[in-house]
Amino acid sequence: MSPDTDHRIAVVPGSYDPVTNGHLDIIKRAAGLFDEVVVAVVNQSVRKSTAMFTIDERIGFIQDALAEAGVTNVRVDPFYELVVAYARRIGAQAIVKGLRQISDFEYEMEMGHLNRQQAPEIESIFVMASPRYAFLSSSWVKELARFDGQIDELVPAPVAKLLGERVAAQRAAAD
Ligand code: ADP
Q1: Which residues have C-beta atoms less than 6 Å from ligand 1?
Q2: Strand-pair partners of 76
Q3: Residue 128's beta-bridge partner residues?
Q4: What is the C-alpha separation between 35 and 31, in angstroms, rounded?
Q5: If you take atom 4 of ligand 1, which residue's CA is the nearest one?
Q6: Cβ-contact 37, 74 below 8 angstroms
Q7: Is residue 102 classed as helix, strand or coil in its secondary structure?
Q8: Domains in the chain, ordered, with CATH?
Q9: What's the 23 CA to ligand 1 centre distance in angstroms?
Q10: pLDDT score for 43
Q11: How many angstroms is it from 142 CA to the middle of ligand 1?
């Protein structure tokens, strides 16, 4: 699909296992910049271990949080291919990524160059994390939950609830 310059679409990819308030902040800010945002949820990521939540759970969490926030120009879809191939297929002009710190920058820079080599017409746009979420990642949220840490301000309420249940079930299975 060739990009339509009157209708600008950005892809915001990630594993979202689970979505955090930091991800939602980036998604909402991208929604303010583009006509349409597609949150692309990767089913299996090469850099991550097995997901804690199923693809449907991860998509549902994002959809519910955006509906509650009244964001209407964002849809959430699974994807199974290279991000650039997906972006091209849906006619997107850009890929938006959040940057928390230097470690993100190093990784994203490599990936951004590779993506550019694969699909020069698709722009990578990097959005600085809001300071209050600059320390926040899905893996830390899961780690906190495993040790009964306070996560209510870090993820949407339904995520905190299901995460608590999942961790309790894992604990019971290990006993
Ligand atoms: P994570 O790195 O938390 O496991 P993902 O793989 O789902 O998350 O990341 C998807 C994108 O979201 C990446 O560009 C990542 O840098 C960004 N991101 C993750 N957490 C935050 C945050 N707290 N603030 C801004 N961007 C973030």
Answers
A1: 14-16, 20, 22-23, 26, 97-98, 100, 104, 129, 133, 136-139
A2: 39
A3: 99
A4: 7
A5: 138
A6: yes
A7: helix
A8: 9-135 (3.40.50.620)
A9: 6
A10: 86
A11: 14
Using CA positions, which residue lies closest to atom 16 of ligand 1?
Answer: 98
Cα-based distances in Å from 119 to 1, 69, 82, 106, 116: 13, 33, 11, 20, 5
Report how far apart, in Å, the C-alpha atoms of 36 and of each of 49, 70, 71, 102 are.
30, 14, 11, 29
**Smallest CA separation from ligand 1 atom 11, residue:** 14
DSSP 9-67: EEEEEE--TT--HHHHHHHHHHHHHSSEEEEEEESS-TTS-S-SS-HHHHHHHHHHHHH
How far is residue 58's CA from residue 60's CA, in Å, rounded to a whole number?
5
- Is the pTM higher than 0.85? The answer reads yes
Cα–Cα separations (whole angstroms), residue 149 to 49, 138, 163: 22, 14, 12
Residue 3 has what pLDDT?
Answer: 64
* Residue 12 token pair: 């915001």
Q: Give every residue of the chain whose pLDDT is below 70, as ranges.
A: 1-4, 45-49
